[in-house]
Design a protein that fits this description.
The chain has 180 residues and is α+β, with helices and mostly antiparallel strands. It folds into 2 domains: 138 residues, no CATH class; 34 residues, no CATH class. It is built from 4 helices and 7 strands. The protein has a 5-stranded mixed sheet with strand order 1-7-2-3-6, sandwiched between helices.
Length: 180
């Protein structure tokens, strides 16, 4: 770890290696709990590897719908005003998903083993694959700050899930609209 915490943070984020990603994406209409296994080499301790396990809860995505009805646009061009009016007319299609997450410490554990990082990571990976849990992940990351790897895992899962979540949300809204 350096004296520059900002450098450490970005270094840790860039050096996350997801060996096993959850095969199931984040739920659209409910919370999702991922079981993570983070493998990291202890600094200054050759052949000492830490395995952290825990749960990461991703909350149900919240839908944010912009309200264009109260926008004041003084000094804007006619083209910009027409664009704002178009947004007003189609604002029901302009939805943003906001994801939240929560670290669960109730199932958190860690252990230190003596072996190479590659060998330990492979054993953890094979163990998780054998369990066939669609909500488990294996990540190799820095030991400090270790939790950056978990946040990066969450960020990647949001990125992977958003298109499917939007499609399901749109389908549900369409079906609800047809029932009325």
């Amino acid at each position: 770890m350096s004296k520059d915490r900002n450098y450490d943070r970005w270094y840790a984020a860039r050096h996350v290696n997801v060996l096993v990603a959850p095969s199931h994406r984040l739920e659209t209409f409910g919370d999702t709990i991922f079981n993570y296994h983070l493998v990291s080499e202890l600094p200054d301790s050759p052949r000492k590897v830490r395995i952290r396990t825990g749960r990461l809860q991703a909350h149900k995505p919240a839908v944010i719908v912009p309200d264009f009805s109260n926008i004041e646009a003084d000094g804007f061009s006619p083209e910009a005003l027409e664009y704002i009016e178009s947004l007003r007319q189609h604002q029901e299609y302009l939805r943003i998903l906001r994801y939240g997450y929560h670290f669960k410490t109730d199932n958190f554990s860690e252990q230190i083993v003596t072996d190479s990082l590659a060998a330990v990571a492979e054993r953890v990976k094979q163990s998780v694959i054998a369990k066939r849990d669609p909500f488990s992940a294996v990540v190799v990351g820095e030991d400090d700050p270790w939790d950056i790897a978990i946040v990066e895992l969450w960020r990647r899962e949001v990125e992977r899930s958003v298109a499917g979540n939007i499609k399901e949300l749109g389908s549900q809204l369409w079906n609800d609209g047809q029932k009325q």
